[in-house]
Amino acid sequence: MSESGFDMPACLDGVRKRDEESARLLFHHLYPLVIKIVRSHLPKRMAEDDLTQTVFMKIFANLDQYAGQAPLEHWVSRIAVNTCIKALRAEKIRPEIRWADLGEDEAQTLDWLASSNEDLHPDRSLASRDLVEKLLDGLKPKDRLVITLMNLEGRSIEEVNQMTGWSHAVIKVRAFRARAKLRKALEKLMKEEKP
Amino acid sequence: MNSGNDPLDRLLKSAARAPRAETGAARFALEARVLGNWRAMAQTDNTDFLLAWLRRAAICACVLALASLAWNYTVSAGSRTGGDELSVADATMRTGVEP
């Protein structure tokens, strides 16, 4: 039994035996982990609840395949990440961001980046996040994922490996290329004429 | 503080500091949707099991029917042969007995 009083093996056993209370407990136990991943990698045109539901259905449908060798959270993370990548891939349009698409705060943030070498003020973090989100929309799902996990969430290569199943070398190469693409998009935006 | 001249590094660093939305507890509507689908999935699993069982039963019935037909054919063919032999024997006896 875990510190929180949640008995994982018993709960999994209950779900496999079609016990609804166990399914409810497992849902609530995994929800914070799943919703965090879904929110970080949610396609623009998809509702958060829809994607969350899809992830949980995959978890429940494949629970018999979980051997228990790795922590359940790792297994669940991998399912959630792969489901999000699939959803992002289905969203075929990768819009190229322009000045006109930026909000006032985002435009000011970009101005500051172009005109100063200083770090951005902490007050600008939300605008920065929005701007990064818009830039990430133009990347392929796997590039977007690696930037989000490593640069925005501060995860290590080992953690990304556990969540995605990609090898360390693949993660490093993908992160490098994704950053290069993101830098190119940012530089293009900074050089663009303001409307 | 200066983290180098790379605007991307500064932007990502600033974005990483943005507060995240609280995960909170799952809304009841979502819980109901997920558990409703889970129940439906469990039911589908039962139906699948029943269908698989019925399929096996149908295959067994077909095998039995074929075996029964084959056996019936063998028996009827055997009885026909036996019938001919009897009639030949009968005719021979009759020829021998009757004047």
Explain how this protein is built.
- The complex is a heterodimer of chains A (195) and B (99).
- Chain A is mostly helical and 195 residues long.
- Chain A has two domains: 8-90, Rna Polymerase Sigma Factor, Chain: A; 99-191, Orthogonal Bundle (Arc Repressor Mutant, subunit A), CATH 1.10.10.10.
- Chain A has nine helices and no strands.
- The longest helix of chain A has 24 residues, at 168-191.
- Chain B has one domain.
- Helices cover 81% and strands 0% of the residues of chain B.
- The interface between A and B is large, with 44 and 34 residues.
Task: Give the helices and strands, then pairings.
The complex is a heterodimer of chains A (195) and B (99).
Chain A: H1 8-16, H2 20-40, H3 48-61, H4 72-90, H5 104-115, H6 125-136, H7 141-152, H8 157-164, H9 168-191
Helix pairs in contact in A: 1-2, 2-3, 2-4, 3-4, 5-6, 7-9
Chain B: H1 7-16, H2 28-97
User: How many runs of DSSP E, i.e. beta strands of chain B?
Assistant: 0
Radius of gyration of chain A: 20 Å
Oligomer: heterodimer
The average pLDDT of chain A is 87
Question: What's the domain count of chain B?
Answer: 1
Amino- and carboxy-terminal Cα gap of chain B: 137 Å
Low-confidence stretches of chain A: none
Q: Which value, in Å, is the CA radius of gyration of chain B? A: 42 Å
**Which overall shape of chain B is indicated by the principal axes computed on the Cα atoms?**
rod-shaped
Count the E strands of chain A.
Answer: 0
Order of helices and strands of chain B: HH
- Strand proportion of chain A: under 5%
Second rung of CATH, namely the architecture of the largest domain in chain A: Orthogonal Bundle
Largest sheet of chain A: none
Question: What is the structural class of chain B?
Answer: mainly alpha
- In the residues of chain A, how many domains can be counted? 2
Spans of at least 5 consecutive residues with low confidence of chain B: none
CATH topology of the largest domain in chain A: Arc Repressor Mutant, subunit A
Fraction of helical residues of chain B: over 70%
Mean pLDDT of chain B: 81
